[in-house]
Amino acid sequence: MISIGIIALIVGIYAYQKMSGTTENIASVVDTSTSPPVQSQLPAAPSGMTYYTDTDLGFSFLYPEHFDAQRQDTASGRLVIISSSTQGLSVQLQTRGWNDVEQAVTLERIRHDAPLTDIRDAQQLNIDGHAAGVMFTSTAPGVQGDIIQAWFILNKHLYQFTAPHGSVSLLNTILASFKI
């Protein structure tokens, strides 16, 4: 599972670097930088669930309470891995600051900036009530099977979620509960 996460991270970093090098104006982004702190907006977690909360970046999401949450700050941003070794499920989040708030993650943008990425079943992604990005199926070199990716920009940060296809239910739970 860790090797899938590392490979997905490499693919995500490559695409991010390609995306951040362009100045093409695709669409405007919802700026929620004036939102109150995320902790005050959270209802009690449903039974069997817990919140991952990042007070520095001001976001949270639900995940199963028996899963592990690991956070690592990197030179380029933050890496969060939600996983269960007993169930073999995992979701990885790579997030970093996004300086160009006039840019939005769109399917066209990903295809332009990462032309070698195999994109299938793409759909618009709504996060916390905002049309924020794209969710799609792809493959990664050295990874057996499909991976699901969800990319969006909110609050001046790029969020890149990656999960093996078998973890799509976990990814959907995280995305449905994601709050800024």
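^ that was protein a. below is b, sequence first then the tokens
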Amino acid sequence: MFKSSSHEPSVFIAHQLCPPHLRQLVEDTVKSFDDKWLLPPVEGELFDSGKACLACLQGFALSQGFAVVTTASKAKRFRFAYIYYGGKTKNWRKLEQHMEKDLESGEIVSKRQRDSTSKQARDCPWEIYWSLRSVGKRGSGEVTGQLGISKATHNHILSPNPFIYKVYQKATYQYQDAVKLALGHRLAYQPYSAMRRVLDTSGLSIDRNTYYNLVHSKPLGQSNDSFEGLVFTLEEGGFRFNYLIANELAEDDSCKKRILE
């Protein structure tokens, strides 16, 4: 939201429902943008490239409480939409439609572990495009990149906290510092609970899924490290555990091997 007087330029103020600990970050991020980025898209607005158009749209979207993605791109045309533009949720893990239980034991036998799943706004009609258009006399070959509006309205409430969208989180130096600090712990197979205590002392944070996705495990059948396979299996199963690994040093003080104690 913006506040202004007749003598001063517009000043961005975070939404009153934005979490207090994020208000300053939201305001500082918006202040770092070109003032023109905070204005609503205008039909015929000029941009040198589709990427330049996207950057401007993303700045406007952050200030309003939504996020933009590129849905199609060609040399002469880009299409942009609200990040959850599709009508259906992607089922990348091929889960069943509903959770299934054994009738006798009551144990869950399906890949889907629960029926209650969160769902963002879907099928939003907001859509903008950028394209190269001919200008000047016919046959002159002179072209310019212009913004076009297919639909500039939403079918959902915009978020008071734009940092619910990962694209904005990843752009902050706080997130980048947290990832750098967490990566070393992830490579050492440290559980999320241990790493989170370290981040808390540094005033940083990342969520559990982001931490475990920093290193993608190989299928157990393709891994030569049985301990690595055990750790990943326990983590993915939601178990909480601790372990101690010591380095066995060679004569030149380099690490010869690691020993589980």
